[in-house]
Design a protein that fits this description.
This protein has about 250 residues and is of the alpha/beta class. It has a single domain, classed as UDP-N-acetylmuramoyl-L-alanine:D-glutamate ligase (3-Layer(aba) Sandwich). It is about 40% helix and about 20% strand.
């Protein structure tokens, strides 16, 4: 059985972060493992507070795990602190892990910053060059590239800039654009992943998409194939979403 590791934040609602990642890994028949990088107080309506796990303890989680099991793919989500970025970068580099998917979590849907001020630059410098693919949404891509994205042309410019920081491939998810839900993949040439826009607001879309990519890479798919399958998976997930709380809809995988 193939394995995948998520290094991400803890979400009490189960709708995002490592809880969501583990559900997605399981949905694809991949055995999931997790290391906690941050603790959050949140629900379906939004994030109230975030605390980083001590970077030394995060490193300990990872070192103990990999002494036993080496993952076939690794998904990196919210790290929050500069110390955690450095710890994860060192871990990925030391063990030469393959199939690394980065969902560069920077801010919540409500606009709350989910990183320390220095983290975006550190992520670009230390983790981007190690990644098989990065999956920023429009807001994250805007912050990380320095380009304000309002349409497809801006997405293309941002994708080129982001790939220049070292990842093998870039997928900018376009769910926050008006009109159709178009994701852009760039590996030196551009391709597009189109889908119908689902009505309503949803919690954990970036987590679900990136962890689906990681699971598919672990199973042996290449990035273009994995991206198309993950896009179809998201379409089904939107249709199966539920509203157990007062805020955003959650995925029932």
């Amino acid at each position: 059985m193939k394995t995948a590791l998520t290094i991400a934040g803890f979400d009490p609602s189960g709708g995002a972060g490592l809880q969501q990642d583990l559900k997605v890994f399981n949905a694809f028949g991949v055995y999931g493992m997790s290391a906690v990088a941050a603790l959050t107080a949140q629900n379906s309506s939004g994030v109230a507070s975030v605390e980083a796990v001590d970077s030394k303890f995060l490193k300990k989680q990872l070192e103990v795990l990999i002494s036993d099991i080496v993952p076939d793919a690794t998904k990196v989500g919210m790290l929050f602190s500069a110390g955690n970025v450095s710890a994860v970068a060192s871990f990925l580099k030391k063990y030469r892990l393959k199939n690394i998917v980065l969902d560069p979590v920077i801010m919540s849907s409500s606009g709350m910053m989910l990183v320390e001020e220095s983290v975006p630059e550190l992520i670009r410098k230390k983790i981007f060059p190690l990644c098989t693919v990065i999956t920023p949404n429009i807001r994250e891509a805007s912050v990380l590239s320095g380009i304000e994205i309002t349409g497809i042309r801006d997405m293309a410019k941002a994708a080129v800039v982001l790939k220049g920081f070292g990842p093998e491939q870039v997928i900018i998810t376009g769910g926050h654009l008006t009109g159709s839900a178009v994701d852009m993949r760039y590996d030196g040439t551009f391709s597009y992943l189109k889908g119908r826009r689902a009505p309503g607001t949803y919690h954990g879309t970036g987590c679900a998409f990136s962890s689906a990519l990681a699971a598919l890479l672990a199973a042996g798919n290449d990035v273009p194939e994995a991206a198309h399958i993950a896009k179809r998976f998201m379409g089904r997930s939107f249709r199966k979403s539920v509203s157990p709380g007062k805020g955003m809809r959650l995925f029932s995988l």
